[in-house]
């Protein structure tokens, strides 16, 4: 069964890649047939602030994601005084649905950021999440 899902994802990925248009900058460089080099040294000397900020933002995002995933699994399946005592299989299904939701919302958040700007989209997403958190309680 996982192989079937994988095949579907490959087809979707291929369709997305074929339907994407190259940026004007890339087309210009491709027509010139000149190879543009962006060495690591240039990245680390001329773009230090952006590189460090991007690194730490992603580090924080994925660190929190994995900590919460592992903690929720441990807490949810632990016995009653310490945890919730839920069956491991059910918790795995809930985590899988959460990860799928996370994967779906990443492009949605990107579309919102493109449409409204990064700051406004963060505010929109934050406030849209309030009803979801209320239901979880």
UniProtKB/TrEMBL annotation:
<feature type="domain" description="Major facilitator superfamily (MFS) profile">
    <location>
        <begin position="47"/>
        <end position="137"/>
    </location>
</feature>
<dbReference type="GO" id="GO:0005886">
    <property type="term" value="C:plasma membrane"/>
</dbReference>
<keyword id="KW-0472">Membrane</keyword>
<feature type="transmembrane region" description="Helical">
    <location>
        <begin position="91"/>
        <end position="113"/>
    </location>
</feature>
<feature type="transmembrane region" description="Helical">
    <location>
        <begin position="6"/>
        <end position="26"/>
    </location>
</feature>
<dbReference type="InterPro" id="IPR036259">
    <property type="entry name" value="MFS_trans_sf"/>
</dbReference>
<feature type="transmembrane region" description="Helical">
    <location>
        <begin position="47"/>
        <end position="71"/>
    </location>
</feature>
<protein>
    <submittedName>
        <fullName>Major facilitator superfamily protein</fullName>
    </submittedName>
</protein>
<keyword id="KW-1133">Transmembrane helix</keyword>
<keyword id="KW-0812">Transmembrane</keyword>
<keyword id="KW-1003">Cell membrane</keyword>
<dbReference type="InterPro" id="IPR020846">
    <property type="entry name" value="MFS_dom"/>
</dbReference>
<dbReference type="GO" id="GO:0022857">
    <property type="term" value="F:transmembrane transporter activity"/>
</dbReference>
<keyword id="KW-0813">Transport</keyword>
């Amino acid at each position: 069964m996982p192989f079937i899902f994988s095949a579907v994802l490959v087809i979707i990925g291929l369709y997305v890649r074929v339907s994407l248009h190259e940026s004007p900058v890339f087309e210009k460089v491709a027509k010139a047939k000149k190879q543009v080099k962006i060495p690591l040294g240039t990245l680390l000397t001329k773009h230090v602030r952006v590189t460090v900020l991007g690194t730490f933002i992603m580090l924080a995002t994925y660190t929190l994601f994995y900590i919460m995933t592992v903690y929720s699994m441990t807490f949810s399946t632990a016995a009653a005084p310490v945890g919730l005592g839920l069956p491991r299989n059910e918790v795995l299904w809930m985590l899988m649905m959460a990860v799928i939701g996370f994967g779906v919302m990443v492009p949605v958040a990107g579309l919102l950021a493109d449409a409204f700007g990064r700051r406004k989209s963060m505010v929109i997403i934050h406030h849209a999440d309030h009803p979801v958190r209320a239901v979880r309680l």
